[in-house]
Amino acid sequence: MIETLLLMYLVIQIHVLLLLFGLNHILSTRDSLIKFAKERQGEQ
User: Fold this and answer.
1) What are the transmembrane regions (predicted)?
2) Whole-structure pTM over 0.85, yes or no?
3) Is residue 44 domain-resident?
4) Angle formed at CA 40 by CA 36 and CA 41, multiple of 5 degrees
5) How far apart are the first and last CA of the chain?
6) What pLDDT score does 17 carry?
7) Using CA atoms, how far apart are residues 17 and 9, in angstroms rounded to an integer?
């Protein structure tokens, strides 16, 4: 019983880490896209 609880806890922790990492990646990608778009607009 305790083993399954530990396993579930570990799985949840991993998912949370993946979610945080994914969100971080999406936000940084969006920021660089916005910068790129602003630079392109400045050239025109």
Assistant:
1) 6-27
2) no
3) no
4) 120
5) 65
6) 96
7) 12
Give the pLDDT confidence of 17-41 residue by residue, as tens digits: 999 999 999 999 999 999 999 999 9
Within-domain flag for 17:
yes
Residue 44 pLDDT level (bands cut at 50, 70, 90):
confident
Name the one residue in this structure whose structure tokens are 């396993």.
Answer: 7
Confirm whether 33 is domain-assigned. Answer: yes
pLDDT at position 1 is 83
Amino acid letter at 15?
A: H
> How many domains, the chain?
1
Supply the DSSP symbol for 11: H
